[in-house]
Amino acid sequence: MKNSLRLTATLASLVLAATITSCKKTQVTERDGIEYTYINEGSQKPENGEILMYHLQIKNAEDSLIYNTYDQPVPGYLMANDSIPVNNGMDEIFMALKKGDSITFTSQVQTIFGPNFPPFLEAEEELVVNLGVMDIISQDSLSQYFAQVSIIENEKRAERAKVLLVEDGKKIEEYAAANNLDVQKTENGLYYVIEREGTGPETTPGTTMYVNYAGYLLDGTIFDTSIQSLAEEKGIFNAGRPYEPLPVNVGMGQVIPGWDEGLLLLKKGSKAKFLIPSPLGYGENGAGALIGPNSILVFDVEVTDIQK
Fold first, then answer.
1. Which of 40, 50, 52, 138 is exposed most, by the fewest CB atoms within 10 A?
2. Measured between alpha carbons, how far is 43 from 48 in angstroms, rounded to an integer?
3. If you ran DSSP here, which 8-state letter would residue 299 be given?
4. What is the pLDDT of residues 217-239, one digit of tens each?
């Protein structure tokens, strides 16, 4: 695609070179009096409805990054719209941007961010802003761009997951050895111990299983359970929720991958322990206050009933 993932590479030749002295001109905004200098000046203005793609870096006096779009999966973007009111100097700068512009300026935190500035900054602290525009694209092209970025991010996530499966596997094996657990491992990386065999036919995807469970982090911290007495004992009882076996439509993506795979190994009456590496659990996002990113999970589960 013409206007696609070349955007980030294009910026390298445009922006964030504040030490360059061959600037074209310096201007001052009517509002707030921000004096900004062009490192490079473009010429193409976006039409209403077009998307202006840019990168932005903000640094403090010690040259430490406060904000950096390079750290994000996609650069900044702004839809051109002449009807948007211009309320401050930052609005003036952004609304006047052209393709190829590369500018730098120094201003106070309260001028750059407005009254809702980050709490770790002081209102009158001065920051250095570097801003560069690399392309103007249509709304359709922006949608295609996001689709491409999503594909690339998913590929990167899959590669990171492969690494984590190996690293988490080593930790799980150490945990199993320290706790005298005779674990088995699936091809996907799930570790499990069947502590009591169940009865009845093999479980197939789509089967509804009723499961009592207790979930722990690898350090022994309990984060959830369906068993009221255990919740009370561990100090996590919540009067606003039911304590009863959880119905799970197995193999249908209703639960984390480690559960989906592990439950298919069980039958009615089975008791088991699942040791779940983070990519088969809540992954990079984690879940709630207790389950942080890339957390290994340990679940004690018991299948109380099955409905085909």
1. 138
2. 16
3. E
4. 999 999 999 999 999 999 999 99
